[in-house]
Amino acid sequence: MSMDKENNDNLLEASEGKNHRKRCEEPGLHTGDGKSSSRRKFTFSIWYFVIAFILIIILNNLFFSSRLNEAISIDYSLFKEYVEDGRIVQVAFDGDQYIGYGMTKADAAEKLREIAASRQIPSSIDTSAIIAYQTYRIDDDSFVPLLDSKDVEYYATEPAEPSVFSYLVSMLLPILIFFIFYAWMSKRLTGGAQGVMSFNQNKSKLVAESDTGVRFADVAGEDEAKAELEEVVDFLRNPCKYSDMGAHIPKGVLLVGPPGTGKTLLAKAVAGEAGVPFFRMSGADFVEMFVGVGAARVRDLFKQAKEKSPCIIFIDEIDAIGRKRSSASVGGNDEREQTLNQLLVEMDGFDSRTGVIILGATNRAEVLDPALLRPGRFDRQVLVDKPDLAGREAILRIHTKEMKLSPDVDLRKIAQGAAGLAGADLANIANEAALQAVRLGHDAITQEDFEEAIEKSIAGLQRKSRVLDEKERTRVAYHETGHALTAFLTPGSSPVSKISIIPRGLGALGYTLQYPTEDRYLLSEEELLGSVDVMLGGRAAEEAIFGNISTGASNDISRASDTVRQMITEYGMSERYRNMTLPRTQSGIEGVSGGRDYSEATQEYIDSETERIISERYSKVLESLQRNRKALEMIAKTLLEKEVLEGSEFEALAKQFAVK
Fold first, then answer.
1. Secondary structure class of 608 (helix, strand, coil)
2. Most buried of the four, 70, 194, 323, 660, by CB within 10 Å?
C-alpha cells in the first residue's frame, strides 16, 4: 500500500513538473513583459444605457413618427369660430380633446368654397395640405348642432396604440434614471473607489508597470535591502531559470524598518524594475464595519492577482491586520482575526510558481503573528534601516540633483549633521533648504540654508516673536553653555556644532547641537554616563551661577533618568544585577501595559540605583563647571551678544578658558 502511494506521488510530481515546464515554454506566459494570455474580461458601463437610449430615439424618429402635422392648440371659442367660418371641415372627438382639420395650401379657400357648396365632406384628404387644430373638450350642448348646421363631418376616434418607443421609454427610462442615481450615490459615498454594495471587493490600487516611475537607481542608502530584492526582480523576469534548478522563490518578502526609511519606495522600485503590475493596498483597507468583509477582500485581492500574474501585491502597514492573535481579546468575534486567518490561508495555498510576489511593510514587526512570519508565507525579512553617513550623503545627492546648489555646499557635512535621520527626513531637509533660499532671495541654495533646514527639522521653527526678558535670557544662555562646556570637557563626546538662545518649536528656549563625526552602533558604559553628564550640564550651570535651578531642564533630566534606567534594566550595567536584564511582561490586551518579572524589592533597588547614579553624575558635573566658572561666564557672555555661536567659535573660547 505504501509503495503504491509513493509511486502515485512520484507520478503527480512528475506531471506537475512537466506541466510547469510547458507553461514556461509558452510565449507570453509569466514573462517579464507584464503581459498575460488571459482574455480581457467584459466590464459593464452605464454608458451602454445612454447609447441604447439615443439609438431608440433615432429609430423612433425614422420609423414611428406621425405623418400628420403637429396640431395647433387654440381656445375653445376660437375653435368654434373656425367651424363657423369653414376653416375646419372635419372634427375628431379624441378622448378629452376636439381635433379639427382644415386646408392650408394656396387653393384652400377655393376648396373650402367647393366643400361648402356641395356639402360633401371628403372621406380622405391629402395630409400634406391639412393643418390640425386642437382644443380641450367642453360640455357644450350647442357644439354638435353647430357641426350639423355647417355640414362638418365629426366622428369619434379610438385611443391611439402606444408606439414601440413609448413602451421602451416607459420601461427603460426609470431603470436608466435609477442606475444613474445609483452610480452617482456610489461615487459620493465611497469617493469614487467602489460601489455602495461592493464592500467585499478589495480597495487595492492597480498601478501599471510603467506608472510606478521608480527604479533601483532612485533608491539610495539601502544597498543591502536592494541586493535582497534584486533576486525577487530576477525571478519575475526569468522564472524558469529558478524552477529548472528546483528552487522556490520566497512567496512573501517583509520589509521591516523605522518610518520614513523607504519601504514603500523599495516596493515600487521592485515593480518598476520587474515591469509587472503592482497592487498597492494598506492593511487598514481590509478592515470594515461589516463582519466578514476583510476576509472577502483578501480573497478578491488574490483572485485578481492570479489573473494579472506575474505581478506584485504590496500590503503597506500590514500590522493593521497581522497582529498576534490572542485569547484575551475583548468580544466574541474579532473581524481583524478573521481577516488575518483568510490571509494566512491564501498565502499558504498560494503557488509561488504563478509569478505573484507578496511584499509587506511594517515598522512594528514584533507585534506580527508568528504564523504570518513562518517559512512558506513571509519567508524573507528585509531590514530597511536608517542610512549611515555614506547612505545619507547618497540620498541627499538624489534629492538635490535637480536643485541649484551653491559651490560651497558640502553634502557630506550636511549628512554628518543629519545623523539618525531617515530618508524621508533628508528629503524634507533638501526641500526646506530650497524654500529657505527662495525666501531669502538667494541665487542658489547655500550651506547656511541646509544648516537652517536641519535645525528646523530637529529643533523646530525659529520663534523670534517670543521675546524673553533679560533675566530669563541670561539663564537660558548659561544653561546652553553648561551643556556645551560639559560636552567639551567629557572625553568621547560628540563635538558641539552650534549653540543658540533663539527659541524654537513649542518649548525650546535655546538648544545645543552636537554632530557626531562618524556613525556609532555601540556605546560603552563610560560613553552612556558621559551622555548623562551632558544632559545634566544645563541645570548644573544654573546652580553654579545663580545658586538655584529652574524648570528649563525638565526634558534633560527626563532623558537622563531614562538612560540610567535602561542601563540598569536592559543593559545589565548595575552593581547588583550585573549582566542581567530586568524586563517587563507584555499584556495580552491591546492598550494595557504589562507587569514586571521581578519583585517589589528589585523595583525599589532600580529606583534607588537610578537616584544614586544621577546624583553622583550631577555632583561631578557641578564640580567641573564650578572649576571652569571663568570659561562658563565668557562663553555665556559671548552667546548673549551674538545669540548664536558656531562650533568653531565655541571651541576657540573653550580651549582658551576651560581647564580639563
1. helix
2. 323
Rg of the Cα atoms in the chain: 43
Taking alpha carbons only, the member of 219, 230, 226, 233 closest to residue 34 is 233
How buried is residue 646: exposed, middle or buried, by Cβ count under 10 Å (0-12/13-18/19+)? middle
| Rounded-to-integer distance, Cα 500 and Cα 642, Å | 9
Q: What local confidence, expressed as pLDDT, does residue 464 receive?
A: 66
In angstroms, the CA 302 to CA 525 distance is 51
Q: Cell match 429609430: residue? A: 59
Tell me 352's DSSP state: G
C-alpha cell at 27: 510565449
Please give the Cα distance from 234 to 225 (Å, whole number). 15
Answer whether 533's CB lies under 8 Å from 621's CB.
Answer: yes
H or E element: which one contains 142? none
What SS3 string covers 454-514?
A: HHHHHHCCECCCCCCCHHHHHHHHHHHHHHHHHHHHCCCCCCEEEEECCCECCCECCEEEE
Q: Which amino acid is at 475?
A: R
- Joined together, the cell numbers standing for residue 407 give 559651490
Contact 277, 209 (CB under 8 A): yes
**So what's the pLDDT on residue 290?**
55
Nearest to 136 by CA among 82, 102, 95, 103: 95
Question: In whole angstroms, what separates CA 277 from the centre of its chain?
Answer: 18
The question of whether 480 is a catalytic residue gets the answer: yes
3-state helix, strand, coil in the chain (%, to 5): 50, 10, 35
**Mean pLDDT, 10 residues at a time, the chain of 660 residues:** 43 42 42 41 58 68 50 86 85 85 54 50 46 84 86 76 64 73 65 44 51 78 85 81 79 89 87 82 71 77 82 87 69 69 79 74 88 85 88 92 91 87 91 93 92 83 73 93 95 90 79 81 91 96 94 92 94 91 65 68 93 96 95 94 91 88
What is the pLDDT at residue 462? 72
Q: Are 569 and 581 in contact (CB under 8 A)?
A: yes
Backbone angles phi, psi at 361, to 5 degrees: -135, 135
Residue tagged 520663534 (cell numbers): 463
Enter the C-alpha cell of residue 334: 474579532
Residue 77 DSSP SS3: helix
Q: Residue 615 half-sphere exposure, CB side, CA atoms within 13 Å?
A: 6
Distance CA 94, CA 68 (A): 15
Choosing from 228, 273, 337, 480, the catalytic residue is 480
What is the pTM for the complete model shown? 0.62
**pLDDT at 9 (0 to 100):** 44
- State how far the alpha carbon of 463 is from the alpha carbons of 90, 428, 470, 506, in Å: 94, 20, 17, 9
Cell triple for residue 44?
A: 459593464
Residue written as grid cell 375628431: 92
Residue 308 Ramachandran class (φ > 0 left, ψ -120 to 50 alpha, else beta): alpha
Quick one: which of 559, 560, 563 has its CA closest to 621? 560
If 0-12 CB within 10 Å is exposed, 13-18 middle and 19+ buried, where does residue 541 land?
buried
Distance CA 567, CA 564 (A): 5
Cell match 444605457: residue? 49
Query: CB within 8 A of 366, min separation 6: which ones?
Result: none
Alpha-carbon 202 to chain mean position? 15
DSSP reduced 3-state for 249:
coil
pLDDT of residue 45: 60
Q: Do residues 588 and 328 lie in contact, with contact meaning Cβ atoms separated by under 8 Å?
A: yes
